[in-house]
Specification:
The complex is a heterodimer of chains A (about 525) and B (about 120). By secondary structure, chain A is mainly alpha-helical. Chain A has helices spanning about 15-25, 35-45, 65-70, 90-100, 110-150, 155-160, 160-165, 170-220, 230-250, 260-290, 290-300, 300-310, 320-340, 350-355, 355-370, 380-400, 405-410, 415-440, 440-445, 445-465, 470-485, and strands spanning about 5-10, 30-35, 50-55, 80-85, 105. Chain B is elongated, with a radius of gyration of 14 Å. Classes of the chains: A mainly alpha (about 525), B mainly alpha (about 120).
C-alpha cells in the first residue's frame, strides 16, 4: 500500500472503475478496485484501507447496503466512505448515504481538483481520528497500569506500558515515570524477599545442622561397647521408615506403588544405595574409629564438592565471591586437620583419608536431590520409601558380615541412642530436602558447615572430647565462608531494564508517535 | 461527429494526462456499453422498469464520460421515465442503440488504437 494512503474503489461499471482507479493512482495514492458490494466487503474484512469510493447504483448489493454493512462492523465502522453519484437527479440518494454514515459525496463527472481535495481531507481526518483512538487506547492502558500499581503489583513487564512509554509527548513521559517508579519499587521488593529467604534458609540450615551434628557423636556413643555400623543403619532406617510411612498414611500422601514410574523407582533405589548403604554405614563406621569431632569436621568438605559439581554442570551461578567463600571454608578445615587434632591421632591418617569419602557421598546425595527428585511425590512419603529400600539392601549385608546389633544391647542406653539417632537423622533429612527445594543445592550444602559446628559442640558435650583452641579460630573462617555463598536466586522473571536516558523532551521527527 | 472532444480532454486530464490511459478507458467503454445496451433492450422487452432504469443510468454516466452527448440525453429521458413508472417507447430504446452505434463508430475512427 502507498504511504500516502490507500483507497478502495467500488463501482459496477468497468469504465468508471478504471477512471477512478487511474485518477486516484495519478494523485499518488495506493488503490484497488472491485466491481460489486460483496467483493468490497470480502476485501475489507482482510485488508485495511484509508478510504472507500462507493457507487450507489449497483445491481444485487447497492451502495446503501454496503454502507450499512460497513457501519455495522467495529472493524470498518470508522472507515471513511465517499459516495459517487450523478448529482443532477440523485440529491436524495446522497442525503440518504450521508445519513447512513458516508463522509462526503463526489459527482460522477467530478473535476480533478475536487477529487484531490476530497481524498486528502478524508484521509487526513482518518489519520487524526486513528491517532486520537490510539491515544485514548494508551490512556486506558496507563489507567489500567495505575490500578495495577495501586494493587501493589510492581513487576514493570506486567504493566504493559512499554509501547506508551515510547511516545515523545506528555503521556509517554507519564508512562516512563510509572515504569521507572515500578522498576525501583520492584527491585526493592525483590531484594527484601531475597533477604527474607536467606534468613529463613539460615534458620532451617542451623536447625538441620544441629540435628545432623548430633548423629555422629550418638553413633560414637552407640558403638562404645561394640561397633555394628550396618546393624545400626538397619535399626535407624527401620524406625525412619515406620515414622515417615506412618505420617504419609495418615496424611494420605503415600503414592500407589503401581503409579510409580521408572524414573521414580530408579531415584528411590539409587538414593537408598547412596544415603543408606554408602553414606550411613561409612559415617557410623568412622564414628566408631575416630574422635567424633574429626568426623564432623571432615563432613564440611561437602560444600566445596557440591559447589564444584554444580559449577561444572552449570546448574548454579559460579561467582568469584561464592568460590572465595567456599575456599575460605576449605582453608579453615585444612588448618584444623593439620594442626588442630589431638596428639595421638597421627596414627589414624588412614582413617582420615577414608573419612574423606563421607563428604563425597553427602555431596552426591545433595546434588541428586536437587536435580532428580521426583517432584510429584510427597517428601515424607518419598523418604519413607527410600528407607524401606535401604533396609532391604542392608539386611543381606548384615547377614553376610553378621553385623546385627545384639538384642540385649538395645534394652539399655543403646536403645535410647538408636531412637534419638533415628529422630535426629529423619527430621534433619526432611529439613534438608525442604532446604534444597527452596534454596538450591549450594546453599543446602552449607548444612555441612552447621553440622560440623554442631558435631563439635555435641562431641564436647556428650563425649567430653577436647577441641584445641586453634580449631575454634579455624571454624571462624568456615563461618565467614558460609556467609559468602548465598542461596540461588528465586526463579522470578527479571523486569526489563528501563532506560532513563531516553529522550523525554518534545516530539522529534525520529520518535514521533505512530505517524508513519 | 457525435463526440464532444472537450469531455475526452477532461477525462484524459483526470487520469493523469496520458493518451494511452485515455485509450484504455475508451476500450473499457466499447467493451461494456454493448452489454448495457443489450440489458436495456431486454429489460424494456420484459417491462422491467427497475432493471431498465439502472441500465439507462449506467449508460448515461458512461456516455457523459465519453462525450457522447446525444446518447447521454436519450439515457436521461429513459431513466426519468422509468423512475416515474412509465415504460418508454420502443423507439426511444432503439434511438439509444443507434446513438451508441454512432458514438462507438466515431470513437473507433478517432482512436484506431482502441481494439474494440
Amino acid at each position: 500500500m502507498s504511504g500516502a494512503g490507500s483507497v478502495l474503489v467500488v463501482d459496477d461499471s468497468a469504465l468508471v472503475r478504471t477512471k477512478l482507479r487511474k485518477a486516484v493512482e495519478a494523485l499518488g495514492y495506493g488503490v484497488e478496485a472491485v466491481g460489486s458490494g460483496a467483493e468490497a466487503l470480502t476485501l475489507l474484512a482482510g485488508a485495511s484501507f484509508d478510504l472507500v469510493l462507493l457507487d450507489i447504483v449497483m445491481p444485487e448489493m447497492d451502495g446503501f447496503e454496503v454502507l450499512k454493512a460497513l457501519k455495522a462492523s467495529p472493524r470498518t465502522r470508522d472507515l471513511p466512505v465517499i459516495v459517487i453519484s450523478a448529482l443532477d437527479e440523485e440529491m436524495h440518494s446522497v442525503v440518504r448515504a450521508i445519513e447512513l454514515g458516508a463522509e462526503d459525496f463526489l459527482p460522477k463527472d467530478f473535476e480533478l481538483a475536487l477529487l484531490k481535495a476530497r481524498l486528502s481531507t478524508c484521509i487526513e481526518k482518518k489519520r487524526l481520528r486513528d491517532n486520537e483512538k490510539e491515544y485514548l487506547r494508551q490512556v486506558a492502558t496507563l489507567t489500567r497500569a495505575a490500578a495495577t500499581l495501586e494493587m501493589g503489583k510492581f513487576n514493570p513487564s506486567r504493566l504493559g506500558i512499554q509501547d506508551v512509554a515510547t511516545r515523545a509527548d506528555g503521556l509517554g513521559t507519564l508512562a516512563k515515570v510509572f515504569s521507572t517508579m515500578a522498576q525501583s519499587v520492584y527491585e526493592r521488593e525483590r531484594k527484601l524477599r531475597q533477604s527474607i529467604r536467606t534468613f529463613r534458609g539460615a534458620l532451617i540450615l542451623i536447625a538441620c545442622g544441629a540435628l545432623w551434628g548430633l548423629v555422629v557423636p550418638l553413633a560414637k556413643l552407640a558403638s562404645e561397647v561394640e561397633a555394628h555400623p550396618v546393624g545400626l543403619a538397619i535399626l535407624i532406617d527401620s524406625l525412619g521408615a515406620l515414622l515417615c510411612l506412618g505420617i504419609s498414611l495418615k496424611r494420605g500422601t503415600l503414592p500407589k506403588l503401581s503409579s510409580l514410574g521408572r524414573g521414580d523407582i530408579s531415584f528411590i533405589v539409587a538414593f537408598a544405595l547412596l544415603s543408606a548403604v554408602l553414606n550411613q554405614v561409612l559415617v557410623y563406621w568412622m564414628a566408631s574409629q575416630l574422635p567424633a569431632f574429626i568426623v564432623s569436621i571432615v563432613i564440611v568438605l561437602e560444600g566445596f564438592i557440591v559447589f564444584l559439581f554444580a559449577a561444572l554442570m552449570r546448574t548454579e551461578v559460579a561467582s568469584l565471591k561464592r568460590f572465595a567463600g567456599l575456599g575460605l571454608g576449605l582453608a579453615g578445615i585444612i588448618v584444623i586437620l593439620l594442626f588442630g587434632m589431638p596428639v595421638n591421632i597421627a596414627a589414624n591418617w588412614l582413617w582420615v583419608g577414608l573419612a574423606l569419602l563421607i563428604p563425597v557421598t553427602y555431596a552426591a546425595e545433595d546434588l541428586f536431590i536437587a536435580e532428580r527428585r521426583p517432584a510429584r511425590i510427597d517428601t515424607i512419603a518419598l523418604f519413607g520409601l527410600v528407607q524401606v529400600v535401604s533396609v532391604a539392601m542392608l539386611l543381606p549385608i548384615a547377614f553376610v558380615t553378621n553385623d546385627f546389633v545384639p538384642f540385649e544391647q538395645l534394652s539399655g542406653q543403646t536403645g535410647i541412642i538408636v531412637l534419638l539417632m533415628a529422630a535426629a537423622s529423619n527430621v534433619a533429612m526432611l529439613l534438608f530436602m525442604w532446604l534444597i527445594k527452596t534454596t538450591g543445592a549450594v546453599f543446602g550444602s552449607q548444612t555441612a558447615y552447621a553440622g560440623t559446628a554442631a558435631g563439635i559442640g555435641w562431641s564436647m558435650l556428650l563425649l567430653g572430647e577436647a577441641v584445641p583452641l586453634l580449631t575454634w579460630g579455624a571454624l571462624a573462617l568456615v563461618i565467614v565462608g558460609l556467609l559468602m555463598v548465598e542461596p540461588k536466586q528465586e526463579a522470578e522473571a527479571e523486569p526489563p531494564v528501563f532506560n532513563d536516558a531516553d529522550d523525554i523532551g518534545p516530539a522529534t521527527g525520529a520518535n514521533a508517535p505512530a505517524a508513519e | 461527429m457525435t463526440i464532444d472532444r472537450q469531455a475526452l480532454d477532461k477525462l484524459r486530464e483526470i487520469v493523469g494526462g496520458e493518451e494511452r490511459d485515455l485509450i484504455e478507458l475508451i476500450d473499457a467503454f466499447l467493451g461494456e456499453a454493448p452489454d448495457i445496451v443489450a440489458a436495456l433492450t431486454a429489460a424494456h422487452a420484459a417491462s422491467d422498469l427497475v432493471a431498465a432504469r439502472r441500465a439507462a443510468h449506467s449508460l448515461k454516466s458512461n456516455a457523459r464520460d465519453m462525450g457522447a452527448i446525444e446518447l447521454a440525453e436519450i439515457c436521461v429521458r429513459l431513466e426519468a421515465l422509468c423512475a416515474a413508472g412509465v415504460l418508454p417507447d420502443a423507439a426511444e430504446v432503439e434511438a439509444a442503440r443507434l446513438a451508441f452505434a454512432d458514438a462507438a463508430g466515431d470513437l473507433r475512427a478517432a482512436y484506431p488504437a482502441a481494439s474494440q
